[in-house]
Amino acid sequence: MTGTSEGWVGSHFHRKEDHRLITGKGRFLADIARPAALHIVFKRSDHAHATIESVDVSAAKAMAGVVAVVTGDDIKDEILPMPQPVVQPALPATYPKHWPLAVGKVKWHGEPVAAVIARDPYVAADAAEAIEVDYDPLPYVGDAESALADGATIVHEDWPDNIIFQMDFTGGADEESQRAHEAKVQEVFDSADIVIKQRFTCHRCGVAPMETRGALFEWDESDGLTGWLTTQRPHIDRLALSDILEIPAEKIRIIAPRDQGGGFGVKAPFYREPMLIAYMAKKLGRPVRWIETRQEHLMAVSQERDQIHDLEVAAASDGKLLAIRDRGLADCGDGCEGVYWGFLMPFLGAVELPNAYDWPIGDIKVKVAITNKSALSPARAFGEFPTRFAMERAIDMVAKRCGMEPADVRRKNLVATLPHMSITNEYFDSGDFIKVWDNLMAEADLPGFRASQAEARAEGRYLGIGFGLGVELSGVASELFVPMENQPGYGAATVRLDPRGKVLVFEGDAPGGQGHETTVAQAVAHSFGIHPNDVVVTTGDTGTTPFGSGTVGARAGSYFVSAAVQACEFLKEKIARIMAHDLALAEASPADFSFADGFVTYQKDANIKKTFREAVERVIMAPINLPEGESGGLEHTAFFEAEKPMIAFNADVCTVEVDIETGQFKILSWTTSEDVGQIINPQIVEGQMQGAIVQGLSNTMFEEFVYDENGQQLTADFENYKLATAADVPDIKVTHAPTPCPYTPLGSRGIGEGRPSDVPGTLCNAICDALGPFGIEITDLPLRPDSLWRKIQAARGAS
Amino acid sequence: MSTTTITVTINGEVFEETVPVRMLLVDFIRERAALTGTHIGCTYEGVCGACTVQIDGEAVKSCLMVAAQADGHEITTVEGLAQGGELSPLQRAFNEQHALQCGYCTPGILMNMDEFLRENPDPTDDEIRHGLVGNLCRCTGYAHIVDAVRQAAKETR
């Protein structure tokens, strides 16, 4: 542990969260016990698309220990259907009506059809098996293109087609302006030296945190509903539950457990299961508990990416990018998922398609189609994993056509001056992309690598180098968040000073491993000049914390911490005003007092000082003889909204060796260059990068949700849905080229959310570079040795 | 539901309990012994390693056994690693190297690596990485876990 009370921001400070977690004293959802809690088990659909003819629950109901069995028909007049406004974006889309249990028909393999509530979880599972459902199968709509084909079966039968959402991101709102814009872009393509036209596809994969979802609800006639829920946004869950169950919001308290086993986006939606569990707890007047099995998890959630992009790039022969055209198509699944509806990820992916390149013009459109799969649920690198794969690969294809180094094409086209507004109206507030890039190139030693590559190739070995980069959201400003999710973007923090000179911080968001307790404790300790161990943090409890839209979009380092610092500054001014009054320093302003090393000191005369505890205790416990207009007490809630939407930026390089006889490849090195602004805790920042890049590699190389031709999901366990192990992945070298963010009080940026996005492009670029002699272009994910081997074989056969 | 009576010692404490014969050891540890540091991640497939404990000193995935099979054996869980309130060198290294984020997989990794280091007091990074293949971690990318195991090995030797 290093650092002083004046220098906690940026210092190495070992995490406060760890002690309980390494001694087995963490408190995750499954560790929370309520007396006589009942257990719920869902009966899930065996079919991808079928009419429910009948549900026979008699055998299940008759089993000893079973308390209740419910079906969709039982609850459809008791619970208001989704959508409800608080979990419905302000974007024009068609929002599918749904209840927590299927009503009338099932739309994907794994959809909840009925549920058993029993005193014992083993009995509940047995009883769920005993429910007999009679189905009449309907045609399976298995991918986005067939969903949009003429004569396709309509999944939501009261809709005119299977389109949940479509948008033109560049041509304006009306048909006429869109046609005019298309023509303008076409002119650029017509006169360009080089045009790349390529379809890129990204498979269905996601995040799958180690802790599955879960919920525990109880009802009390006077207090109302209390729910412990695995969630990234407890305040939104509370409002949504209030709407659908018609319980006044003030009678609902949602508590995200202090410890959550990862979220990465998948715990951010308002899902169907908690609605039913809350309803049943109220109806039965007894606590009801659900711990999702891994099989349920992999059938129902954690599925993202799944986009196709027909991408065209126009460029000059000197590598200058001239125009982009993209037609994106996403396979949404059934779209029945509060907040996201399966389409917000492809929406944001399209917004972020242009990446950090300075495009003069573009024509970008996306369609999102309903199919008979589970709804896409958010995964870190929200929506942009496929678009960034397409973009980073396309840049390399341009470079090849120009006969240039891909690195040079990137540098030439990076946005050189910030702020910048992208062609999809994404605002890049600040930073220095060129500085980050040049730092990466100093690490990469490209000439040295080219020499080793040539030597290796002479020996019949195939080495390659690949680059990629990414602009990521640093928090989500209200001006994007309100239309996108109908929720505020501000960060909120309550800072309460304790009479004994300690500090309590309350955060309405709900972290799952990102180290908020430590990061904010460092920022608060820095501000007050005390030790981080004197700061205690409470998160995710709607009964005690200020409103927050959730732990999403890298909001902590950008918005939450900034709110906490603002609250500290407010309280410091009050302490200073009262101290000046007490000391009869009529000329003193709050700025004349420093907070450092546990003291509040009058800087013009360092002999005039009080311990932080004395200064605080005076205001809280002895509120007499105060300046006119002042009151006692020291607590403040700040809502931080940045002046502008903010970003972070990174660039990556990796090297690989490919075995052309087998298609196997090995990652030899991976180095990143980051602008995360002012770092608060270097270890936590590095941990975010290591973890995010490995998630990106795992998505790229291993993970894939597979449905058979009838929509049976074949990958609902970790044997078949493979995650990267320690032996599968490299160590990552993380380097920094920071520019402090001018819009946050500490200069910090939010980091980690979008970070996996440039990984597939970077890795595939390296492999294509290694296989340069064969002219292989990777355009589809996942990247597997067998498909690579086939491409190599085909290229060798052709030559 | 048929039951059986078993006697097991967990972290030095003796439990004599009548349990359903189908009760998994991990559920016994969590529900009967109320030791919730042992986690369930893959729901009884033996893939994720979050439920790893030691039985007579050997790392075992406690979801792959029924409790009855542990009758007469000594079990150590993550709660038993720290002695007299003092963290083990491995636990301390996990904190110092930032080898955990959400901490859900961590107890299983600690129980596996605790045994691994007894068998491999001077491991290479490659050996550590291969020693970890039975434990999935979704947060860290594994690099800091390798750093922590290497630090603990160095301090323990």
Structure description:
- The complex is a heterodimer of chains A (799) and B (157).
- Chain A is of the alpha+beta class and 799 residues long.
- Chain A has three domains: 37-138 and 211-261 and 267-300, Aldehyde Oxidoreductase, domain 3; 304-477 and 644-798, Aldehyde oxidase/xanthine dehydrogenase, molybdopterin binding domain (Aldehyde Oxidoreductase, domain 4); 490-640, Aldehyde Oxidoreductase, domain 4, CATH 3.30.365.
- Chain A is 30% helix and 23% strand.
- A seven-stranded mixed β-sheet of chain A has the order 3-5-1-12-9-10-11, with helices on both faces.
- In chain A, helix 10 (344-351) runs parallel beside helix 11 (384-402).
- The longest helix of chain A has 27 residues, at 556-582.
- Chain A starts with 17 loop residues before the first helix and ends with a helix.
- Chain B has 157 residues and is an alpha+beta fold.
- Chain B has two domains: 3-80, Roll (Ubiquitin-like (UB roll)), CATH 3.10.20.30; 89-156, Orthogonal Bundle (DNA polymerase, domain 1), CATH 1.10.150.
- Chain B has five helices and five strands.
- A five-stranded mixed β-sheet of chain B has the order 2-1-5-3-4, with helices on both faces.
- Chain B is globular and about 45 Å long.
- The mean pLDDT of chain B is 97.
- At the A-B interface, helix 1 and helix 19 of A face helix 2, helix 3, helix 4 and helix 5 of B.
Could you tell me the radius of gyration of chain A in angstroms? 28 Å
Which stretches of chain A of 5+ consecutive residues score pLDDT under 50?
Answer: 1-5
The CATH architecture of the largest domain in chain A = 2-Layer Sandwich
Largest sheet of chain A: 7 strands, mixed
* Helical proportion of chain B, percent range: 25-40%
